[in-house]
Amino acid sequence: MSKVALVTGSAKGIGRAILLALAQKGFDVAVHYHTSALEAEQTRQEAEKFGVRAIKVKADVTQVIQAQALIAAVVEQLGGLQVLVNNVGDYLKKPIDQTSPEEWQRLLDSNLNAPFYLTQAALPYLSQSGHGRVVNIGFAGAQNLLARPDITPYVIAKTGLVIYSKSLAQRLASRGITVNVVSPGVAENSLSKPLSSIPMGRPARLEELARAVLFFVEEAGSYLTGQVLEVAGGWNL
Predict the structure, then answer these.
(1) What is the dihedral of CA 124, 127, 131, 137, to 10 degrees?
(2) Is residue 41 one of the residues assigned to a domain?
(3) How far apart are CA 129 and CA 94, in angstroms?
(4) How many structural domains compose the chain?
(5) According to a count of CB atoms within 10 Å of the terminal CB, is the N or C end of the chain lower?
(6) Domain of 97?
(7) 228 forms bridges with which residues in the sheet?
(8) What is the DSSP pairing of strand 83-86 with strand 133-137?
(9) What angle do CA 188, 230, 228 make, to 5 degrees?
C-alpha cells in the first residue's frame, strides 16, 4: 500500500521543503497551492524525481467547501491519505490598533480555521490508515502568553492551533493518529531576520524544519502526540 502525504502551501518555502523531504522518504505527495501555479508544477516535477507519484491541487483552504474538496481530490487521485501537514498561514506585522477587521479575519482563517477544516475532512482517511499523522506548523513562543502588539492576530491563531492540536491528539490517540506541532522561529526565508535576538545567531534552514516534521511522521515518533517542537535556535524562549 502506498503512503500518501498532503502538505498545504507546498509550492514554495517551508511547505516545499517538507513535501520534498516526504517524497524522498517514499511518500506519494500532493502539492497544494492557491495562486502559485508555476511554482507548484515545478515542485511537483521535482518530487517525481524521487520515484513517487506527485500531483498538484489548487484550493483556497480558508473556505470550508474548498478545503473539503482538496482532501477528496487527494484521496481520489492518490488512493488514500496517511499524513496531513497544515502549513498554510498568512503573516501580518501591524500594530493591533491599526489592524482592520478584514485583516484580523484573514489571519485567523488561514492559521487556525483552515487546519480545522482540513483535518476534520481528513480524519476518516487518517483513521483508515491505522497510523495517521497530522503535523501543524506553529510559531515559536506561541505557547507563552505574552503581549505581541505587532503580530497579535497571528499569535492568537497560532496559540489556538496549539490548543486545538493538543485536544485533537488526546481525542485521536486510541485510533492510532498522532497530532503534533512544529513551531519555526526565524527561518532563512523569513521576511525579517533579527539575528541579534537568536541565541544561535542564525535563522533556521528549511531542511531543519522539514526534518522536524519527519521526526513526528516516522516510526521513531509514533508514541509522541500533542507535542510542540520549536525549531528556533533558542529564540522566543
Answers:
(1) 40
(2) yes
(3) 42
(4) 1
(5) N
(6) 4-231
(7) 181
(8) parallel
(9) 140
